[in-house]
């Protein structure tokens, strides 16, 4: 079996050192081949403005980071003034263990709420934190995010009278090399299968924008009438699953927790525990 990961962090189509490749190899003992296609690329914006906001850490009750790209933007914004030490006084909230680990690796800062599988669950965690602590801290939370964010985080926090200052720090764009990447993938497939073979290919989507940007290419390159390819769609998060369904594609399953180990374990159960 070949599994296609629509993952923006991998610069190499066959990145065998990626945590997802390693976890799948651990679980399946090389019986599954992983292949990466980057659906999106990023254009960072408002970096100077973000740096100015971060230079006054005491005006924030916390900082919310929902992706690695938010951390990249944060690092870019503090680099010119070398003010990373100021961030030690602020509490951080992150979505998922991957984002938490990235923050630890880059800035040696730990965070809360990382067990939340998506931004909606993180928002509810923050609300509970405020209620539990009976907080009289009325300073806003700082939320660097994508310009096209679709999560309900701000809505949930505002409904619970928690102020949030949102700043867009990057644009999410379609990868300009997708046609070439899919041609390479088709060539890769041709070295492994013949026209008489039926092959099952799970495609793992990590974000709604990944679904949007890959949809036309999947139809063009993998959905021709002569193809013996059976596609299975796997989602990271409810919003990604909803976006897959909006394209009239069936979600095979949604990963139980947004990390590499859960993907490998859930995939194994789906295949063998029928």
From TrEMBL:
<dbReference type="GO" id="GO:0006785">
    <property type="term" value="P:heme B biosynthetic process"/>
</dbReference>
<comment type="function">
    <text>Catalyzes cyclization of the linear tetrapyrrole, hydroxymethylbilane, to the macrocyclic uroporphyrinogen III, the branch point for the various sub-pathways leading to the wide diversity of porphyrins. Porphyrins act as cofactors for a multitude of enzymes that perform a variety of processes within the cell such as methionine synthesis (vitamin B12) or oxygen transport (heme).</text>
</comment>
<feature type="domain" description="Tetrapyrrole biosynthesis uroporphyrinogen III synthase">
    <location>
        <begin position="29"/>
        <end position="264"/>
    </location>
</feature>
<protein>
    <recommendedName>
        <fullName>Uroporphyrinogen-III synthase</fullName>
        <ecNumber>4.2.1.75</ecNumber>
    </recommendedName>
</protein>
<keyword id="KW-0627">Porphyrin biosynthesis</keyword>
<dbReference type="GO" id="GO:0005829">
    <property type="term" value="C:cytosol"/>
</dbReference>
<dbReference type="InterPro" id="IPR039793">
    <property type="entry name" value="UROS/Hem4"/>
</dbReference>
<comment type="similarity">
    <text>Belongs to the uroporphyrinogen-III synthase family.</text>
</comment>
<dbReference type="GO" id="GO:0004852">
    <property type="term" value="F:uroporphyrinogen-III synthase activity"/>
</dbReference>
<dbReference type="Pfam" id="PF02602">
    <property type="entry name" value="HEM4"/>
</dbReference>
<keyword id="KW-0350">Heme biosynthesis</keyword>
<comment type="pathway">
    <text>Porphyrin-containing compound metabolism; protoporphyrin-IX biosynthesis; coproporphyrinogen-III from 5-aminolevulinate: step 3/4.</text>
</comment>
<dbReference type="InterPro" id="IPR003754">
    <property type="entry name" value="4pyrrol_synth_uPrphyn_synth"/>
</dbReference>
<dbReference type="GO" id="GO:0006780">
    <property type="term" value="P:uroporphyrinogen III biosynthetic process"/>
</dbReference>
<dbReference type="InterPro" id="IPR036108">
    <property type="entry name" value="4pyrrol_syn_uPrphyn_synt_sf"/>
</dbReference>
<keyword id="KW-0456">Lyase</keyword>
């Amino acid at each position: 079996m070949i599994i296609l990961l629509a993952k923006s962090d991998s610069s190499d189509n066959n990145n065998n050192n990626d945590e997802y490749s390693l976890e799948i190899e651990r679980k399946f003992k090389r019986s599954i081949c992983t292949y990466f296609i980057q659906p999106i690329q990023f254009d960072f914006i408002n970096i100077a403005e973000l740096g100015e906001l971060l230079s006054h850490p005491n005006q924030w009750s916390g900082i919310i980071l929902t992706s690695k790209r938010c951390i990249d933007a944060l690092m870019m914004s503090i680099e010119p003034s070398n003010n990373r030490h100021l961030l030690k006084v602020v509490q951080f909230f992150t979505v998922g263990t991957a984002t938490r680990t990235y923050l630890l690796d880059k800035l040696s800062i730990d965070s809360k709420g990382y067990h939340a599988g998506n931004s909606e669950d993180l928002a509810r965690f923050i609300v509970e934190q405020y209620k539990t602590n009976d907080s009289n801290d009325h300073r806003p939370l700082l939320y660097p995010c994508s310009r096209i964010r679709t999560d309900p985080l701000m809505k949930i926090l505002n409904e619970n009278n928690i102020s949030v200052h949102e700043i867009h720090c990057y644009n999410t764009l379609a990868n300009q090399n997708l046609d070439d990447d899919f041609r390479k993938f088709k060539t890769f497939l041709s070295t492994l299968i013949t026209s008489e073979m039926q092959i099952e290919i799970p495609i793992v989507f990590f974000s709604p924008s990944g679904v949007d940007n890959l949809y036309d290419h999947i139809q063009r390159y993998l959905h021709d009438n002569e193809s013996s390819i059976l596609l299975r769609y796997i989602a990271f998060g409810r919003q990604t699953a909803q976006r897959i369904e909006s394209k009239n594609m069936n979600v095979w399953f949604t990963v139980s927790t947004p990390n590499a180990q859960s993907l490998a374990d859930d995939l194994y159960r789906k295949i063998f525990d029928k």
